């Protein structure tokens, strides 16, 4: 049987399925048999077990995962939770129910506090489920622990689950929900785990089934034949060889340079990006540093972070994006209130404009970092709609002392007005994730709409061409920093459409570098011409392949 979904990355994996356990049902509102002391002891020992288990996993995890796990262990050890469990048991509740109710009331309290506290509420549910599972003697929810590597199949993954995936254990990821630009996909790509998302029949895959997951093709082959397994093994070996090819600057076969840059979220990721051959940074997502902040970070705090980042790239280009708050990236200190359609609401530059003090502080911190380091700092605004917004941002950046100021092309109106924008901006960077979402009017967070979230769609490619042509006419660089740049075949088409640099998660650099070296600029243009004349995303991909 072959299942189809939207692939993330182009790697291939062979392994057995392990299903993510279903969430536990709510424990019944049962009373204990009368032995309160025994119930209390069982609850206390389950809490201690879960805390110790989380701590043991924290020790083995990387820094990011360690932080999440340690914070979660602390919740299990919180004495006020135990007090409230004991009180409920004294009132006659059985241990499981007492644990459930104690965590639920803490959760509700956190939610009522809002902001960062509310974000922790999900973690509390996770601890509660683990303790109840221990009391019941069943497997804890979350990513299963196994000795052998496996293919993880889930409905969807919470960001914390994805952050904690053990890379040596999870060969591939298959989910029913999620699309290629959902945050699960972005994390999977950054960890170089092949993933296929939006697989309608994912939950029909039974534990222990042998599967081949081919992210490049977006297919899952169940119970493959011996020939299929050896073909997949050969492909895995071929991809491993490409990943170990020498690191050179990005270029086409005829020597046309195509700088390959990194997408980063924190300065701590910079060293690895340099190691993987990033020629600079094409997208620094500044909001990721402030997701947990309850008040706007100060100019001093921001100056420190940006300087730390820029110091990794002396003499190199670093493109920093101004805060992109709203929709899929909520920031509690820039709360826009209730919006029915947050993706169409106050986000990106719109929210910065109504909070101009926050924008001015950020740009001032960036000017400080620019003047304190040797990096070539470029700053851009997200979600810009037209020439007027471009003028506003560029003028403000210049007034505060930035050298190079540009805009992101994420909204179709900006592509339609590309000539007006290119005249007013130092550069344009295409955010293909949002440009696809808005061009096809399909929420990038919805798994059911994953097939619309396809940057190969000719409507998206034609927008890229409008931007590339306008950039060439005005002599301004036009980069791509969305997930599209990380798809090696699409990268060629983007260059053929006039894109001058590509920025991606560092794990994707080797594959894109290798693929660009296989074509000349003329050949890239021929593939681009074939793709934009197709009528759908999949046929555009095929047309580009046939033009090869
Ligand atoms: C994009 O939209 O393509 C982009 C790069 O920004 P983000 O994914 O952070 O919205
Ligand atoms: Mg975006």
Keywords:
548 residues, alpha/beta, eight-stranded mixed β-sheet, eight-stranded parallel beta barrel, 22 helices, 16 strands, binds phosphoenolpyruvate, binds magnesium ion
Give a verbal description of the structure.
With 548 residues, this protein is of the alpha/beta class. 46% of the residues lie in helices and 14% in strands. It is built from 22 helices and 16 strands. The strands form 2 sheets. An 8-stranded mixed sheet has the order 1-8-7-3-4-5-6-2. Strands 9-10-11-12-13-14-15-16 form an 8-stranded parallel beta barrel, surrounded by 5 helices. The two termini are 30 Å apart. It binds phosphoenolpyruvate and magnesium ion (MG). Magnesium ion (MG) binds next to α17.
How are the secondary structure elements laid out?
Blueprint: E1 2-4, E2 6-8, E3 12-19, H1 36-60, H2 63-77, H3 79-90, H4 95-113, H5 115-119, H6 121-136, E4 150-154, H7 159-163, E5 170-175, H8 183-190, E6 195-197, E7 210-214, E8 219-222, H9 226-243, E9 260-264, H10 270-275, E10 280-285, H11 299-310, E11 317-321, H12 349-354, H13 356-372, E12 376-381, H14 387-400, E13 404-409, H15 412-416, H16 418-424, E14 428-430, H17 432-439, H18 458-474, E15 478-480, H19 488-496, E16 501-504, H20 509-516, H21 521-532, H22 537-546
Helix pairs in contact: 1-2, 1-3, 1-6, 2-6, 3-4, 4-6, 11-13, 16-18, 19-20, 19-21, 21-22
Magnesium ion binds next to helix 17.
